[in-house]
Amino acid sequence: MTAVERTAALTGPPLAPVASTVREELRDRLVEGVGAAVAPLPADDPVVVTLPLLRRARARPDLLASAEEPFAWRPAFVRRSLGLAVVDACADGRFRSPLDAVGPVASLAVDRWRETGWRTFHWEPWMAGLAEGARAVVLAEAAGWATSLWSSLDWSSLDPRTRIGGADDQWVCPASNTVRLKGRSDVRVPLAARGPRAPAEGNREAVALVSLSGGCPSPAWREELAYLALVASLRSPSRPVPARVLGLWPDAGADRVVEVDEGALTAAADLVAATVTAVVEARHSVPA
Amino acid sequence: MDIERPNGSPRSSGGGGLPVGSPRQPGARPRGCDAGHRHHLAGWEPLSGEDLLERLRITGRPRPRAHPDLVERLRSGLESGLRAGGRGDIGGRPGSPPSPPVGLCHPAPLVVTKDRLTRALACEAHHHASESGQRPVSVALACGAIVDALFRQLVTVGSIGDAMTDGLAALAVDDRRSDLVGWVERLSGTERDELGAEVERQAEGLRRRWPALDPAWLPRTQEAMRVRLADGAFELSTRVDLAIGRPAGDVASVAIVEVKSGSHRAEHRADLHFSALLETLRSPAPPFVVATYYTRTGELDVDPVTDELLVGAARRTLMGSRLLADLARGAEPGRTAKPLCGRCSVLTDDVGQRHPGGPGPWAHGDRDGDGAAR
């Protein structure tokens, strides 16, 4: 599929809006199911559900109980945020390609931090202290990531309100403050209201999400992509449920689209519940 | 867009050339051959600048077109061969466990890299020993890793400063290579000086000869390629030093370059063909060319991609993947050293016999520092 064809598939009219009652039922179901699963956990032992956790629970369940390594910056952690800023700069027309943009965008962020102390990306102080060879690795990683996203879509045909990057969607399970769902979409594309459904409530302001991942699509790619729509819809009940999610796996040259309907959201919620249960069991299996 | 000449630009007699006015990093690298900078090796002069790029771009063959039927044949041939299991082309071996249905044997995919393929096909015993033990670090491997990092830096930022300083700083933030930094720092003064001199010599060659690449060609370094086969039981995986050209549409537009700090080895071309196969399986069209750039000599070994090349790569991949699957299932590795196994000449314990005239440290290259992820 070419970038033009992929973009056309991404921005086509939404198939059918998800009724608000469906969203409420799913929310109640998650609150009940997930709340019960984490009941044995102490309040200071939170479960943060993310797309990588959903994937790890299927591919490497043996790692679920592993303690997380202390955080330290490395190029892979900068790749996405810098890469998104690079794509944004290219989409704005400030640069003609990611390799043109990556150095200036990184330098501008570091300069701003030096002048104001403001950290847009959080990695600015770390980047400022890197030797030239190490900085080149960071730039190369980000340029590669950005190039994958940049060459996957026909940016000229996207709605000007398209948002590249931005804050993660988050939803905290109200039954228990130990469970938080985080969804990280790389691009949010407003879908033009058009076609016979255009006037109908629910089609307005609908968005499509784009998510770029490494590796290959897993057998659960539908549920994983729908998870991003699920978190977005739980986070903002007043906004329409995202109409579709496009997943990109550049390493594999693969892309997949999920049309978000009741079935997709339910499957995603089931995957969340199963993953949280697996995490709780894994933590209980670790000897004190 | 690929690395073709823009519409309307005049063409050279070779059928094409570089885009007129393509950018150059100030003071960094030549855009054309500079006779004063040419390296002379027994009367042969390595290409540089535009000439090097021209050699890469002009293969003398028409660019391959998207060929869905060929891709389907390659994929289905691999799929059916892998599902059938066993040693296929090379025959079953006593002691090989029967192949269970794919999917039950390896819940996680069996990852097939170019290194694993080459090791298994060259010498099963050596492959077996390599998989179960820690890979020894050598001066050649360290040199390869540092030069890889410097090449990446040159492509990305357009310049290399102090080669050892930049290279080691790059390795220090690379999870796959960071252990090499401590190893280099523990070298004796003489060994470290020797390594530093070779790294600087090769870096200087890169500075003088490697052309600036137009960012519009979307050059990307250390690009990962993965293809899952047989319901996810196998994952073909590689990482190429450089890919240039926008993703292909109807016509091939991508060139793949591997950088080697050591000397020619027979398997380098097979490695390239494996990368060409993966790019073909994951993209609408194959790459139009794959090439190895030898930083020690400045030589560019160019291989235009043809259907025959891809079919041959698929056959080799199938054969090696079956071997790897057998070994992963616990089959007894073959104990016969083969001439292709460079390591057997220095690691006699693996196979109980020694090849005469093993290669020297720089010639060996130890896979030129290729990491396990390759």
Task: Give an overview in words.
The complex is a heterodimer of chains A (288) and B (374). In chain A, 47% of the residues lie in helices and 12% in strands. Chain A contains 9 helices and 8 strands. Chain A has helices at residues 3-11, 20-37, 51-59, 75-91, 98-116, 124-128, 132-150, 221-235, 262-285, and strands at residues 47-49, 163-164, 169-172, 179-183, 187-190, 207-212, 244-249, 254-259. Chain A has a 5-stranded mixed sheet, with helices on both faces. A 3-stranded mixed sheet of chain A has the order 1-4-3. The longest helix of chain A has 24 residues, at 262-285. The model of chain A is unreliable at 195-203 (pLDDT under 50). In chain B, strands 1, 2, 3, 4, 5 and 6 form a 6-stranded mixed sheet that branches. Chain B has 12 helices and 6 strands. Chain B has 374 residues and is an alpha/beta fold. Chain B folds into 2 domains: 49-131 and 214-344, no CATH class; 139-209. Residues 4-28, 30-40, 87-106 and 346-374 of chain B have low confidence and may be disordered. In chain B, strand 2 and strand 3 form a beta hairpin.
Quickly list its features:
heterodimer; A: 288 residues; alpha/beta; five-stranded mixed sheet; three-stranded mixed sheet; 9 helices; 8 strands; 47% helix; globular; B: 374 residues; 2 domains; six-stranded mixed sheet; 12 helices; disordered C terminus
